[in-house]
Amino acid sequence: MAALKFKDFKLYSYKIPLRKALKLKSVSIDSREGLILKIFDSDSSYGFGEIAPLPGFSRENLDEARSQTIQICNSLKKTLSQQVPEEISGVIKDFPGDVYPSVSFGVASALLLLSADRRNISLSELLSKDCSSSLEVNALLSGSKEEIMTSLVHIKESNYGSVKLKVGSRELSEDIDLTQKVREQLGESINLRLDANRGWSLEQAATFHSQTKDCQIEYIEEPVSNSSELHELLSDSSLDMRIALDETLTEIEISDFNKFSSVFALVLKPTLLGLEKTIGFAELAKSQKIACAFSSSYESVIGLSVIAQLAAGNSTNSACGLDTLGIYADDSYLKLFPVKNGRIEMKNIEIFDKQFESLTLSEV
User: Fold this and answer.
1) What is the pTM (predicted TM-score) of this model?
2) Digit-coded pLDDT (tens) for 304-327
3) Partner residues linked to 135 by β-bridges
4) What does the CA dihedral 230, 282, 341, 272 come to, rounded to 10 degrees?
């Protein structure tokens, strides 16, 4: 096979209306905005990537990400004019300076998909010969109590095996009551995981845990608001709380992970971590037999499909947080990324050029 060369790139912007406003920490959005990168090689093979900083969570905004993406791609046209590396580490090392996580994810995944296209294989097959053919996904419960209880009917009918409930933004007593009611409605066979988004104090987290011990909670993501309280929770063997790290992973290096004891699970969001760090944490989780869930940051169907391929390529052992396309006003995207019986069959994900054509894009 001829050497894979970086020939050119095109960058497009999108803005997708949401079904209803989405509250993200201190901001609320009514549409999702991002960039789609398409990279070409010398023989017209191509790869896609998505760059979509998440307001309230990403340190970079969309304008900063756009500027850096163009800078990096122009640089890569020169440095990779001879051959594009096919390993993630080889792709990342050529990035100049401090790269924003969303840009790292988008550019690196486009280059790797370009390599996969040249081989006529999927990204998951490029990452591993033993990639998964299907992925379990968790349903997401958010909104008002009434909306959540209504959603539970659909979730049970759709045969999901795992559910994530957003907590931490209500009064503690309301979160406790809601968690108990959700578990009662789900029955014992469906896994229940919680995401507190750092919404509780140490005392509130302990109180919540003591009053929901019978709810068979798989784990709680980021229960407390700062790292010192997190370390205290993790080191308290009498509490026996299963804790997952999400935002914390964006603040530490992989080498710092040994400072965190008794972590039950890692939630990996490539848009917020960057691609190399995502894969690094996935490998660490596998080596330490820690649960690992790849998760969306509300990307478009293109970014979501890339994350699914990453999860399949890493044979993740936990339900993924990828059932997020329902936030969009346009239901047609769901057909490109079908979730049936709480699972994604990788063979049913539409190929990237069809997903690309489904978006309303403006060339940058």
Assistant:
1) 0.94
2) 999 999 999 998 779 999 999 999
3) 344
4) 70
Q: Is the pLDDT of residue 79 over 80?
A: no
* CA 107 – CA 275 distance, rounded (Å): 9
Q: Tell me the per-residue pLDDT of 8-26, one tens digit each, with 9 for 90 and over.
A: 899 999 999 999 999 887 8
Range 134-356: architecture per CATH: Alpha-Beta Barrel (3.20)
Residue 282's contacts (CB-CB under 8 Å, 6 or more residues apart) are 266, 268, 292, 294, 310, 314, 316
CA-to-CA dists, residue 168 to 149, 215, 293, 340, angstroms = 17, 17, 20, 29
Predicted confidence (pLDDT) at residue 286 exceeds the cutoff of 50: yes
| Structural domain spans, the chain | 6-122, 134-356
Indicate the CATH number of 6-122 among 3.30.390.10, 3.30.365.10, 3.40.50.720, 3.40.50.300.
3.30.390.10
CA distance 83 to 4: 5
Token pair belonging to 12: 């497009």
Phi and psi at 189, nearest 5°, equal -85, -15
Tokens describing residue 340 = 């049936």
- First-to-last CA distance in the chain? 32
Categorise residue 240: left if φ over 0, alpha if ψ from -120 to 50, beta otherwise. Answer: left
